[in-house]
Automatic annotation (TrEMBL):
Residues 1-18 form the signal peptide. InterPro entries: Motility-assoc_lipoprot_GldH. This is Protein involved in gliding motility GldH. Pfam families: GldH_lipo. PROSITE patterns: PROKAR_LIPOPROTEIN. Keywords: Signal.
Length: 163
């Protein structure tokens, strides 16, 4: 009897937590181990989405105290099923001027949910791909940082735009 009650409470709590995120359509993370190499591209493959729905797109970044910069530059590509590619160079602020992290979380790891695109519709049938790579450079240097330390995970999230 007691085991059944504990199991029922566990299932109820899980269902409650899952229902709190009703807008989520896609939410995946890729781990970064040993630093994010300059030429390493992370690719998120998107299953077919409702072509009549509009979505908001986010890049999620988890960093720790080994990240030595206040901002983060990324190059993204949205690859359409029929071959079209949209490339963006993005800059995100990761820390306040006093050095405190802007992300959420406890301890050494902070997570930042960063806007990527708003009110997007996926009208072409087929698989879309989102490619993300780091584009960090030191001031007055042309070459990028070979191995960016302190980024532990990169995620991609799609939410329904309920407006």
């Amino acid at each position: 009897m007691r085991k059944a009650a504990v199991f029922l409470i566990f299932i109820s709590a899980f269902a409650l937590l899952a229902s709190c995120d009703k807008k989520r359509v896609y939410d995946e993370y890729e781990p970064i181990q040993g630093g994010w190499e300059k030429d390493s591209t992370l690719v998120f493959k998107l299953e077919e989405l409702d072509s009549l729905q509009n979505y908001n797109l986010f890049i999620n970044v988890r960093n720790n105290k080994d990240y030595n910069y206040r901002n983060l530059f990324l190059i993204t590509e949205m690859r359409f099923p029929q071959g079209k590619v949209i490339t963006d160079t993005l800059e995100y602020e990761m820390a306040a001027p006093d050095g405190s992290w802007l992300g959420t979380g406890f301890g050494d790891v902070k997570e930042s949910k960063l806007w990527y695109k708003e009110n997007v519709s996926f009208t072409e049938p087929g698989e879309y791909k989102i490619a993300i790579k780091q584009a960090m450079r030191k001031n007055d240097e042309v070459e990028g940082i070979e191995n960016l330390e302190g980024i532990t995970h990169i995620g991609f999230r799609i939410e329904e735009n309920l407006q």
